[in-house]
């Protein structure tokens, strides 16, 4: 069965510092991988996605993620965090078209000044 | 382009009342999903439809929950009778039929409080 693990429940980084949010997945074939962001009281916004090809994918708001098959990981990174990046981040995995998206438990990011 | 539209955005109801949440997927999308988000359990898939047909409803908590998709542009999630533990944010999402068929687009959510 598909599953996603986000080991860090809560992370605090200083504004301007770099960020890495961890995500590990379990899936029998090559998965489709996603990162979503949710601001308080809001819905989920797609940050980036990996389907195939280049294992380093670029997303919106300066985020990127790298797919590492050998480690079953899809970590999210940003070189310099802004206060507006404070939110909850969800990693997700799914299979072929028409199948559902399975989410991790999320990582809450706080940004300190 | 209009995204996934959910209504109501917020609802407060008394225990025992019927609650109906509504969703209009993005036009042309052929998969529709209902998710529930709580602090304790995170984001859980309740049910999803392909071409208006329910494919997997194993996430529906119990018989008090039911979902329908009478046509390609409308779906409902009904809770009857509602209980305080049903308080959560309910998200509807849809997915297109083209090459981008693996991206799911979410609505803004329906925030339900049962008192």
Task: Report a brief summary of the structure.
Chain A has no helices and twelve strands. By secondary structure, chain A is mainly beta. In chain B, a hairpin with a 2-residue loop joins strand 7 and strand 8 (74-79).
Task: Describe the protein's architecture and organization.
The complex is a heterodimer of chains A (113) and B (115). Chain A has 113 residues and is mostly beta strands. Chain A contains no helices and twelve strands. In chain A, strands 2, 5, 6, 10, 11 and 12 form a six-stranded mixed sheet that branches. Chain A is globular and about 40 Å long. The N and C termini of chain A lie far apart (41 Å). By secondary structure, chain B is mostly beta strands. In chain B, strands 2, 4, 5, 6, 9, 10 and 11 form a seven-stranded mixed sheet that branches. A four-stranded antiparallel sheet of chain B has the order 1-3-8-7, with no helix packed on it. In chain B, strand 7 and strand 8 form a beta hairpin. Chain B is globular and about 40 Å long. The model of chain B has no long low-confidence stretch (mean pLDDT 92).
List keywords for this structure.
heterodimer; A: 113 residues; mainly beta; six-stranded mixed beta sheet; four-stranded antiparallel beta sheet; 12 strands; 0% helix; B: 115 residues; seven-stranded mixed beta sheet; globular
| Low-pLDDT runs of chain B | none
Low-confidence stretches of chain A: none
What share of the residues of chain B lie within helices? under 10%
The oligomeric status of these chains comes to heterodimer
């Amino acid at each position: 069965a598909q599953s996603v693990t986000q080991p860090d429940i809560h992370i605090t980084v200083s504004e301007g510092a770099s960020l890495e949010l961890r995500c590990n997945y379990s899936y029998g074939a090559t998965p489709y991988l996603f990162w979503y962001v949710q601001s308080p009281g809001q819905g989920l916004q797609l940050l980036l996605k990996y389907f195939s090809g280049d294992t380093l994918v670029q997303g919106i708001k300066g985020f990127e993620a790298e797919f590492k098959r050998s480690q079953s990981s899809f970590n999210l990174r940003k070189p310099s965090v802004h206060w507006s990046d404070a939110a909850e981040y969800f990693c997700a995995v799914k299979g072929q078209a028409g199948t559902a998206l399975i989410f991790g438990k999320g990582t809450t990011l706080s940004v300190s000044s | 382009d209009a995204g996934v539209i959910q209504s109501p955005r917020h609802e407060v109801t008394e225990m025992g009342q019927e609650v109906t949440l509504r969703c209009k997927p993005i036009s042309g999308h052929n998969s529709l999903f209902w998710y529930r988000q709580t602090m304790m359990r995170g984001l859980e898939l309740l049910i999803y439809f392909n071409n208006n047909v329910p494919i997997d409803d194993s996430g529906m908590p119990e018989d008090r929950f039911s979902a329908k998709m009478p046509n390609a542009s409308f779906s409902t999630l009904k809770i009857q009778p509602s209980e305080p533990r049903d308080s959560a944010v309910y998200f509807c999402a849809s997915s297109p039929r083209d090459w981008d068929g693996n991206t799911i687009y979410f609505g803004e959510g329906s925030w339900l409080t049962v008192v």
